[in-house]
Structures
1.
Amino acid sequence: MHYVPQSLPLDQVLLGDCRQVLPSLPAESVDMVLTDPPYGVAYQSRDGRSLAGDRTLEWLKPAFAEVYRVMKPNSIAVSYYGWTKVDEFMAAWRGAGFRIAGHLTFPKRYASSSGLVRYQHEQAYLLAKGSPRPPEHLIGDVIEWQYSGNALHPTQKPTSVLTPLIESFCPYGGTVLDPFAGSGSTLVAARLTGRHGIGIEVEAKMQQTANARLQRMRSRMLENLGFAEPAAYAQAA
Ligand SMILES: C[S@@+](CC[C@H](N)C(=O)[O-])C[C@H]1O[C@@H](n2cnc3c(N)ncnc32)[C@H](O)[C@@H]1O
């Protein structure tokens, strides 16, 4: 089994600004980072929901400097980004020490919005700390998008696009960090693939939503294995 430091707060989303929370994690302690930060575009969903930290990108450089510090040597971060702010994202990633190791696109069957073209894909960069070895089974850099429904978060990522990335770049039993966790999709994908997750989320309501989602998943998994949680025993008694 993969070595996981005892001190890590596994399989939960911590509350706070990742610039303040990340320094509490040990250096070189996580196997992979998979994150979907705000794109700096003041996004508003059709039903009027918005994101914290989406008006300015002043958090970008300090957050990715800390992300780099907590990653193990020779590991991978995957970060989604918005194409209109690619210069700022690139400067923050390179400034932190990352080497650009690949680019991923996620084609959608529908358009999220439009300008001179219909916007029909999401995108992410593969960022290397050091020189990670290629995975045993290579995945393609085009991964089909599935609409998540956005029930828990205005920009909720479908777990189906996250699981192949985790399987490729995090060893079984290892730890994936998401410092912009939202509704906890990365942590759910980590548990689905036999990895651990650590999340950080600045909005208290969203952090509760994410932890409740993880708790529901734990209960379902235990139930499927034929176990009930102690609280369920107490209620039944
Ligand atoms: C694009 S959303 C992530 C959505 C997530 N992938 C999901 O599937 O639910 C980015 C999240 O980062 C949070 N956020 C913004 N600034 C932050 C910061 N400095 N530290 C931690 N979280 C932050 C926002 O509240 C938002 O929920």
2.
Amino acid sequence: MVTTTVTLFTPPPPTKATLPSFPLPKTHYTSSSSCSSTSRRFRVRAYSNTSKFGNFLHLKPAHQPEPLDFDLPWCHPSDRSRFDVIIIGSGPAGTRLAEQVSRYGIKVCCVDPDPLSMWPNNYGVWVDEFESIDLEDCLDKTWPMACVYINERKTKYLDRGYGRVSRKKLKQKLIEGCVSNGVKFHKGKVWQIQHQEFESTVLCDDGTELRGSLIIDASGFASTFVEYDKARNHGFQIAHGILAEVDDHPFDLDKMVLMDWRDSHMGNEPYLRANNSKFPTFLYAMPFSSNLIFLEETSLVSRPVLSYMEVKKRMVARLRHLGIRVNKILEDEKCLIPMGGPLPRIPQNVMAIGGTSGIVHPSTGYMVARTMAVAPCVATAIAECLGSTRMIRGKQLYAKIWNSMWPIESKLNRQFYSFGMETLLKLDLNGSRRFFDAFFDLKPYYWQGFLSSRLNLKELAWLSISLFGHASNRSRLDIVTKCPAPLAKMMGNIALEYIR
Ligand SMILES: Cc1cc2nc3c(=O)[nH]c(=O)nc-3n(C[C@H](O)[C@H](O)[C@H](O)COP(=O)(O)OP(=O)(O)OC[C@H]3O[C@@H](n4cnc5c(N)ncnc54)[C@H](O)[C@@H]3O)c2cc1C
């Protein structure tokens, strides 16, 4: 039996646009008051230049992603018992966990304002990551290789397949799994969670109350349901992406461009070049055909976050220089990903997965493949507690589930990946080029393992030594002069994790 009680209670606060709960106070180059007269002059030039040369920024996306056409089993007010698990959010993380946990016969309800809407982001993953979890049929395009333009003279070719996730196929597959395992859906926005000793109640903006033994927050980066006991000193990845119809482009169709660090497009744009030298951005590109390409100008990580307008202006200059004329924008995306920072307090009575759980790779911003891979482990732990044979609830349940997501080894490894982010934050354009030049010279086991969060602490330590060995003298100097503080912080945090 399932309880879905529609009760009268104090109405939720008026709905307002959800503000990100992560700190976003400042950006580089947004404070005009601190702008020198020179940079103000450059800024004016930037606008006139971009409008003069075929700026694509005024183009509006021609398509909105279509929702899935599916008959969902909605949760009905006449259902009378409580759920085992209530999942807030049906993004990639929430839907995957619902599909996995319901395989064990656990009663799951997924709450989302629009459970059938198509996910808005374009997701890229390494093909082997999806193959290892049997999701390769959810890639709609793969490239046998990737490449990294270090500078105008040097390109690195990476012998590792890359794929674009078909949001439609992945969501369809996960939702089909949910439906056949008996997951119920509720259309609504959760605005509050109340906890009792062995169960919790979620309150939705339509007045619905849902009760469950375990509440899982999969509502993304802007969640306010998960608590932290340390200051959230994230770095931020920010990017502007477009899926565009173009006259032509210069990229090989059998390689995706993981990073293009070239900056020759800034030859005539000194106002952009100076900033880019300090806080660099690169181009990420997925060429689908000679006329269709996904292009994304990306700031890998910055703190405070780089201005979005700055990123867009750099993209306009780059495409103009590459001779890419955008005829039509099919989709666009603003990418803002908090990276690194502390994990949520562990344990706590709301469990988290996805963007709100600290699982984003602190050095790359990737998350989808890892979330797909970790969900089965979390689901097994939930089944051990709430399945038919065991009845572990309350504090014991929360501790077990949080530990399935963040066992001690994963917490220690994350310290290392966060150290990677702190190092990247200190690198300017040339430093970043030298770093990635050495990084992609490592044995594939190491660079691939690092990017896919597969290495253990010993291997990560070996990677660091090896990276130092491969680095140029300038790069070694960067490491020696810029890394001691983050290194000491990482060692301290690792020691603390051991003591706890
Ligand atoms: C533009 C962009 C591009 C990205 N590209 C990649 C990539 O290429 N590869 C990669 O690995 N990662 C990528 N990421 C990072 C990460 O994988 C995505 O952000 C991913 O969508 C996070 O998944 P999620 O399920 O945790 O959250 P989301 O996808 O944000 O889904 C959250 C869901 O919860 C719902 N929700 C929110 N609040 C409530 C509430 N109060 N009640 C009920 N429901 C609620 C939302 O409507 C939404 O459906 C990208 C991120 C962005 C922003």
